[in-house]
Fold:
Amino acid sequence: MEMIDILYKKRNGEELSKEEIKYFVEGYNNERIPDYQMSALLMAIYFKGMNKAETVNLTNAIINSGETIDLSMIKGLKVDKHSTGGVGDKTTIALGALVAANNVPVAKLSGRGLGHTGGTIDKLEAIQGFSADLTIKKFADQVNSIKFSLGGQTKDLAPADKKLYALRDVTATIDNISLIASSVMSKKLASGADRIVLDVKTGSGAFMKDIDQAFELGRAMVDIGNGVGKNTVAVVTDMEQPLGNTIGNGIEVREAIELLQGEGSKDLLELCHYLGSYMLLLAEKVGSLDEGMEKIQEVIDNGKALDVFKSFVQSQGGDIKFIEQPELLHQTQDIYEYKALSEGYIHRLDAELLGKSALTLGAGRLDKSTKIDHKVGLQLEKKIGDYVNKGETVITVFYNDKDKLDGALELLQESVYISDAEKKPRKIIHGVVTENEEKRL
Structure:
């Protein structure tokens, strides 16, 4: 088998065999195939596409490029949740405790953030002492004892994906459905979960800006998951404006804690209800989505979810003082109130620009060497559709560096638009993709 033959075949729009896909993934991962040939193949895939079988085979080849995690020592059906990334997305922090409080094991491996989308580990490290550096035994023991553990992804998990992604990033071949789907699912499937719920974001702050494309990506990932015997569901959710009322690290953890206390934003609660219900459904703990939502709300009302979260934080070295006094999570040197320049209805709170504003303050990283400021961030006092008076605070900014504030404010001004006309916000749940159907809401 030669790489040139695979290039000819895909250039002409033909289907690649399982063996051919395995050959180029292994060859590139082991540096037998040079960048220029792999770049040519990625561009051919970008233009000619891959069918369902090819996408499943690509995912399996990437999984087999490194280690896989065996979680068989954890009792019960393990359900994982993965988000395709967004702004203000602190869902995992609250959802892990909500599902675990319903006696479903949540064994979660997460990454760090890069750019304007924050990573769950980065956020939780705002809690003094918290560490996601766990051995597999400690990780599994914790799930068996309190039902919830969160560790960092290892460098040996799907290593071919990291190499392919880096090459896609510099060859303009990122936004291809099959390549995105195989990248996401290879890491999820290598992580050892029995069932998978996917949160596919769409809107200005998401990778998939278009709703139809988000459903297409959801379908591709669900087909991969079910194609390898893992019951998988994708929920398409909105990211036209930030999720919840906060953007940052410590400030988002505070909002997740508020949700577990029965407070917080309606859109975050609705999303947690929906995703949590599907996790309980896939874990065979409930018989319907409605029953699942009732169970999720029940552990908020009776305090069990908050208790699980405290145990989780304490087990991973975190100081629960930051849960009992969550305002400590975002105490900065200074606070700035960004006020409305006119009266009317909020028409736009551009999620991507607001995420970049928080990044400018120091809440994210432009590269892996950047040190994150866990305390800075944005508090949204208004959301799309809300009426605001001239001079009323729209966004509260928590900052530690005046120079960074100036850059952040420029982006804030671009992100907020106010109009006389009433504005109805988009719904948070756009629909769901299962093995046998696609349902739009």
About this structure: The longest helix spans residues 211-227. The longest strand covers residues 195-202. The chain has a mean pLDDT of 94.
